[in-house]
Structure formats: structure tokens, C-alpha cells
Automatic annotation (TrEMBL):
The lineage of its organism: Bacteria, Pseudomonadati, Pseudomonadota, Betaproteobacteria, Burkholderiales. GO terms for molecular function: peroxiredoxin activity. Residues 34-119 form the Carboxymuconolactone decarboxylase-like domain. InterPro entries: 4CMD/NDH-1_regulator, AhpD-like, CMD-like. This is Putative 4-carboxymuconolactone decarboxylase. It comes from the Bacteria. PANTHER family: 4-CARBOXYMUCONOLACTONE DECARBOXYLASE FAMILY PROTEIN, GAMMA-CARBOXYMUCONOLACTONE DECARBOXYLASE. Gene3D superfamilies: AhpD-like.
């Protein structure tokens, strides 16, 4: 790990967690902010997600909770719901995590989160 650059480590972690969805996010930034794409790979994935303190399942549960609580990040929430599924979080755990946010972020945020989860689950069923 020490010989890897932040970018290489982050790109590998992004691919492990998000698969094609992560690649699409990076591609969407090509024409407008390629430096931001690099920051997105290096800091969150190269530095934070690569730390040993939490497993990827726990990290994605935390991200789904945080994005649900924000209430204004539906595209990112959908990517991370898919990422959670990719790393072994069950549909039930995702739904329960989102429902828990009703207590702290309100019913509208939880309802929006459940709608995002429903959409991701439906897309997954189609594949």
C-alpha cells in the first residue's frame, strides 16, 4: 500500500465499491472538472475508504445514512445504495438504515431515501 499513489489506491477502492457507477461519476466530470474527479478519487477513496478502522459494509451503511439525512443528494445516495449492495449490505439493512434517519432527519428525508432505494432495487432486479 505504501508504494501505491493516493490516486491508484483510490481508483482501485472506487472500482471495488462502486464498479461501473463510480466510473460513470468520473466520466461525468471529464468535460467540466477533471481535477475534481482526481480529488474525488484521492481523498474519499484513496485516503478515507482505504483506512483499516471500518470494513466497507460499515462505511457504506454510514454513507447511506448521511446522504439520506442530507435530504438533497439523491443521485449520490443512489450510487451509494448500489455500492452498499456491492459490498454485502442487504436490502433490509439499507431500508432499516434509511428508516432510522426519519428519527434524526425527518420523514421527508427518509421518504426520499426510500424512493431512491426502491429505484435502485428495481434497476438491480432488471439486470
Amino acid at each position: 500500500m505504501k508504494n501505491e499513489s493516493r490516486y491508484e489506491r483510490g481508483l482501485a477502492k472506487l472500482r471495488e465499491i462502486d464498479g461501473k457507477a463510480g466510473e460513470h461519476v468520473l466520466e461525468s466530470l471529464d468535460g467540466i472538472a477533471p481535477d475534481f474527479a482526481r480529488y474525488l478519487i484521492e481523498f474519499p477513496f484513496g485516503d478515507i475508504y482505504s483506512r483499516p478502522g471500518l470494513d466497507l459494509k460499515s462505511r457504506e451503511i454510514a454513507v447511506v445514512a448521511a446522504l439520506t439525512a442530507l435530504g438533497n443528494a439523491a443521485p449520490q445516495l443512489k450510487v451509494h445504495i448500489q455500492a452498499a449492495l456491492n459490498v454485502g449490505v442487504t436490502r433490509t439493512e439499507i431500508v432499516e438504515t434509511i428508516m432510522q434517519m426519519a428519527v434524526y432527519a425527518g420523514f421527508p428525508a427518509a421518504l426520499n431515501g426510500l424512493a431512491a432505494a426502491k429505484e435502485v432495487f428495481a434497476q438491480q432486479a432488471e439486470q
